[in-house]
Specification:
With 116 residues, the chain is mainly α. The chain has helices at 37-54, 58-66, 75-86, 96-110; strands at residues 2-4, 28-30. 47% of the residues lie in helices and 5% in strands. Helix 1 runs parallel beside helix 3 and helix 2 (58-66) crosses helix 3. The longest helix has 18 residues, at 37-54. It is elongated, with a radius of gyration of 20 Å.
C-alpha cells in the first residue's frame, strides 16, 4: 500500500492521505505531494492570504472590520483587521454598533454561546 509522505497535508479527503492508511499495517510513503494539484492550489491560496494580510492597509482593515460577518473573508484576515483597528490612535470613526458586532464575532469564534 502506498500513501503520501506529507503527513500534515490539509486535504484529508484525498485517497492517498496517511489518515486513510489502515491501522497496524505497514505502508510505503511516496512522494505524491509534488504532483498534487489540490495541495498546490491550497498552498498558493495560503500564500496569497498571507500576502494580503502583510499588505493590509487601514482602509482595508476598516472595511473588513465593518463587514466582520462576511463569509468570503478568512478568519486570519479578520483577526489582522481587528488588530489594526484596535491599535489605531483614535476610534472616532468606529461606531459602537460595529464594535459590538466584532465583539460578538470574537465571542462566537472563541466560545460556544447559547442565546438566552
Amino acid at each position: 500500500m502506498e500513501f503520501c509522505r506529507k503527513h500534515d497535508c490539509p486535504i484529508t479527503d484525498c485517497k492517498y492521505h496517511q489518515k486513510r492508511a489502515p491501522f497496524g499495517i505497514a505502508y510505503t510513503a511516496r512522494d505524491m505531494d509534488t504532483g498534487c494539484k489540490r495541495l498546490a492550489d491550497h498552498l498558493a491560496e495560503e500564500a496569497a492570504k498571507e500576502e494580503r494580510i502583510q499588505k493590509m492597509d487601514m482602509g482595508t482593515a476598516y472595511v473588513i472590520f465593518q463587514n466582520i460577518d462576511a463569509p468570503d473573508i478568512s478568519d486570519e484576515e479578520k483577526a489582522a483587521a481587528i488588530f489594526k483597528v484596535v491599535n489605531m490612535e483614535t476610534h472616532n470613526s468606529v461606531t459602537k454598533a460595529s464594535m459590538l458586532k466584532v465583539l460578538r464575532w470574537l465571542l462566537e469564534f472563541s466560545f460556544e454561546i447559547k442565546e438566552g
